[in-house]
Structures are given as structure tokens and as C-alpha cells.
Automatic annotation (TrEMBL):
GO MF: protein-lysine N-methyltransferase activity
Gene for this chain: LOC113396385
Domain called SET: residue spans: 41-302
Gene3D superfamilies: set domain protein methyltransferase, domain 1 (3.90.1410.10)
Protein name: SET domain-containing protein 4
Length: 455
């Protein structure tokens, strides 16, 4: 090993420690191997100072290399729920016709969460016990912040939490009623284990760890009327994949997944699926990046702006220049009324038809296209010298009309002052990781708005 290489390795070594001694992870590794997981020999689990637990490579990884692949029956996906006879009988043997009553009423994510609680309630008798034990015990999403802190965090963060709360409470109660009325008498443990806190944990396990998995090539999900899938109002394309879900996110990572189907399994009807078929189907993930020896391996989870990362995954990326501050159309209207501007019906129709009531935000580059277009409609719609439709499309090229920017600055300033006041209130609470994520994002909002006001 040359001097530069030794130095680099030493520097990287400072950023993590290995998980070799952690009981849960040793058990997880041997359980996965026993059940047919194949992962790149260069990879090991480690704890990193900046991201926590993740995956480290001991040797160089080149773009195009497979990171890991696992048999489908070692993932928790839609077929796992459908093949679980006892779980399905909770719904199918019930005092209420729940498939009808709750037709299209819950998301697949909620159903997966309910299934996870069911698995968890089985303790060490569950096939997934070792995997379930290796999962985080708590999540750092702001959903779990105490109410007195939530009162002061920014509206955008609060909006997401409110939506999450509605979904979680609504689906929790539906499943609660189904469980209370089931005639299946082998789920007594589950009945006493099922609680809002266990359901919340399961919901965020699914939220933070699921990967996209499209099984339409192997199962036919069309005729689902008499199956538990008639409850769901979205698609089933998410899955929990042990070990793969140990890989952390980087916005610059690029990767691809694919289903590897060995023998001709055809497209199975929902009613005919059985476990043996799926040992011949494997799920594989490839990276399109190079990773140096003794560095962390990342994949990309999708959107990387901090509002999403904080509220859905519980972490914050510093110096993230894709962050933006949203302004709701309703709030802009309130500002307009305060400065004695009332939009006419024609203006409102134009705004609706052009979608100018959505995606209204300011980022480090300034006003979004829609925000700028909306301001144009407000200011120039009745100007006889202006063709408003043409003008809006010119906004894609040039968006620095001082009249429009100066016009909106008081509203932007109000927003800035409110965030600063909220930050000052939040500074009185004792620090915790989740609160810090929120205040970091709010400081980022301050930076964006100050830059806009100063321009
Ligand atoms: C799919 S899991 C990855 C493994 C996880 N770190 C663990 O300990 O089990 C996703 C979670 O990892 C954490 N995470 C992922 N990427 C991160 C990053 N770049 N920085 C900090 N935390 C990250 C977040 O808590 C996120 O909810």
C-alpha cells in the first residue's frame, strides 16, 4: 500500500467503526446468508460518524457492479401478505364485510405497516424475527416531536406532519375495527399487541426503508376483488429488503434494480401464488457509481430536498441548494387582499388553467416559474400593451422584473420574520437530533428568503 493510499485509508477510518460486535447485526448477517442473500464480498456494515449505520466497501467498487441480490421470498412484499393465510383470515373471516366496507380506504403502505405489527407481535416465533430485531427502535422524523415543539416549527414541516397524522390515525382505526371484529381465533397475541405506538413505528419503518419493486411481471394484480388488496387505493410497488435497506442515501448516487427471473414462472394470478415460485425470482441492485476503498456506499432514494428528507426519512443534508420555501396560493391571496388587490374571475380562471396556483416557491435562484407567472397575471393582466400568455412564457428566459420582485417583498419579509421568531422560540427547548433537523431547515429557509430580499 502506497503512502497516499495509507493516508486516505487512515482518514476514512476515522469516519466510521465496524459493527462486527453488534449482536443483532451478526445474527442478521448469518440469517441472511442462510436464506440465500448474495452480497458483494467487498461490503460490510459499519457505523459512520455523519450518517449512522450504513454499508462500507473494503475495496474499490466500479460503476456497473452489483451490490447485492436476494431471493424474492427474503423480502417483505405484496405476495408475503397475500400468502400469509392467518393474516388474510383476519379480514376474510370477519363479523363485518370489511373488504366491502373499507374498499379503497387505505394505502398499501398502511397495510404493510399493519402486517409488520402482526409479524412483530409473534416475537421469536416469526420467520422475520431476526430481521425485525435489527430494525431501528425509534425514528427521527418530526412526526414524533412533542406537541409543544410542533407548535413552533415551520408550516411546511407541520403540513407534512398533519397529513401523516391523518393517514396514520385513519388507517389505524380501520385496522383496529377489523381486528376487533375478526372471527379468526389465532390472533389473540396480535390483538393485545396492536397499539398506536406499535403501528406508528411500523408505519415509519415502511416509510424510511421500503424500496420500489414492481412485481407485475410475476403476479397478476388485476382480479383482486376477493383479496385483501381490495382495501387499498394505490399500488403495491414497495417492498422491505433486508440488508439492502442498510444502505444510506446520497443525492449524487445512481443505481438500478431489476428482477431476475430464472425459470419461466409466467404471470401468476393473485389466488395461485405460493412461496416456492419466488425462490426462483431474485431482486438485484446495481450501482452506477465508483466507490473508493473504505468509503461508504450510497444509493439514491429519490427526491433530495430537505423537507422531504427530514419529514419522511428523519435526516438533513447540509448545503443542499435544491431547498425551497413554498408559498401557498391561499396565503398569497390573503396578502393581495391586505394590499387591496382582488383578483377578478377572469384572472382566477387564467391562473387555474395555467396551473399558476401550484409550485409557488422561492429558492436560492429566486422566484419559481409559476410564482413569477402568477405575479405577472396579478400585475399585467389588464395592461392593454401586454399579451399576458406570451409574457408568461418569456418568464422562462427572464424573471427579474423589479416591479414584481419589489411588489412581493413585503410578503416574503413577513414570512422571514415569522420563521426567525419561531427559531427564537425553538432555541428555548433542549436540543435533540430531530429538532435540530427542523431548525437547520428553517435556517436554510431564512438564508433563501434573506437572499431574495437583498437582491
Ligand atoms: C434505508 S435506511 C438506511 C439504514 C439506516 N441508517 C439504519 O441504521 O438502519 C434509511 C435511514 O437511514 C438514515 N439515513 C439514510 N441516508 C442518510 C444520510 N445521508 N444521512 C443521515 N442519515 C441517513 C435515515 O435515518 C433514514 O431514515
Amino acid at each position: 500500500m502506497g503512502r497516499t493510499q495509507r493516508k486516505r485509508r487512515h482518514k476514512n477510518l476515522l469516519n466510521f467503526y465496524s459493527c462486527n460486535n453488534e449482536k443483532d447485526l451478526i445474527l442478521l448477517n448469518s440469517w441472511l446468508k442462510k436464506n440465500g442473500v448474495r452480497y458483494n464480498k467487498k461490503l460490510v456494515l459499519a457505523v459512520f460518524s455523519d450518517t449512522g449505520r450504513g454499508v462500507l466497501t473494503k475495496k474499490k467498487i466500479m460503476a456497473g457492479e452489483e451490490l447485492m441480490n436476494l431471493p424474492l421470498n427474503l423480502t417483505i412484499n405484496v405476495t408475503s401478505l397475500l400468502m400469509d393465510v392467518v393474516f388474510c383470515s383476519i379480514f376474510l373471516e370477519n363479523k363485518i364485510p370489511c373488504l366491502l366496507k373499507y374498499n379503497y380506504k387505505v394505502s398499501f403502505q398502511s397495510l404493510m405497516a399493519f402486517y409488520l405489527v402482526y409479524l412483530k407481535s409473534q416475537g421469536n416465533e416469526c420467520k422475520w424475527y431476526i430481521y425485525l430485531e435489527s430494525l431501528p427502535k425509534v425514528y427521527t422524523v418530526p412526526y414524533f416531536l412533542p406537541i409543544e415543539i410542533k407548535k413552533h416549527i415551520d408550516d411546511e414541516i407541520l403540513d407534512v406532519i398533519t397529513k401523516q397524522t391523518n393517514i396514520i390515525e385513519h388507517s389505524f382505526h380501520i385496522f383496529d375495527e377489523i381486528l376487533k371484529n375478526t372471527l379468526c381465533n389465532t390472533v389473540q397475541n396480535f390483538k393485545s399487541y396492536y397499539s398506536i405506538s406499535h403501528y406508528e413505528w411500523a408505519y415509519f419503518t415502511v416509510n424510511t426503508r421500503c424500496v420500489y419493486m414492481d412485481l407485475t411481471k410475476v403476479i397478476d394484480l388485476q382480479n383482486i376483488n376477493n383479496s385483501i388488496l381490495s382495501l387499498i387505493n394505490d399500488n403495491t410497488k414497495i417492498s422491505l429488503c433486508p440488508y439492502l435497506d442498510m444502505i444510506n442515501h446520497s443525492p449524487s448516487a445512481r443505481n438500478e434494480t431489476k428482477l431476475m427471473i430464472n425459470k419461466e414462472v409466467g404471470v401468476m394470478p393473485v389466488t395461485k401464488i405460493d412461496e416456492s415460485i419466488f425462490s426462483d425470482v431474485r431482486f438485484s441492485i446495481y450501482t452506477k457509481n465508483n466507490f473508493d476503498p473504505y468509503t461508504q456506499v450510497f444509493i439514491c432514494y429519490g427526491d433530495s430536498h430537505n423537507l422531504k428528507l427530514i419529514t419522511e426519512y428523519g435526516f438533513y443534508l447540509p448545503s443542499n441548494d435544491i431547498d425551497f420555501v413554498l408559498f401557498q396560493f391561499d396565503k398569497i391571496n390573503i396578502f393581495l387582499n391586505a394590499v387591496s388587490i382582488k383578483l377578478s374571475n377572469d384572472q382566477l380562471a387564467f391562473i387555474n388553467n395555467h396551473g399558476l396556483n401550484k409550485d409557488l416557491y422561492i429558492d436560492l435562484r429566486g422566484l419559481s416559474f409559476n410564482f413569477y407567472g402568477l405575479l405577472m397575471v396579478i400585475k399585467y393582466y389588464y395592461d392593454k400593451n401586454v399579451d399576458i400568455s406570451r409574457l408568461i412564457y418569456s418568464a422562462a428566459i427572464c424573471s427579474n422584473d423589479r416591479v414584481l420582485i419589489e411588489f412581493i417583498k413585503p410578503m416574503v419579509n413577513d414570512r422571514l420574520v415569522n420563521i426567525q421568531a419561531a427559531l427564537s422560540k425553538l432555541s428555548n427547548f433542549s436540543k435533540c437530533f430531530t429538532l435540530e433537523n427542523c431548525t437547520n431547515l428553517m435556517c436554510q429557509y431564512v438564508k433563501i428568503l434573506e437572499k431574495f430580499i437583498k437582491c
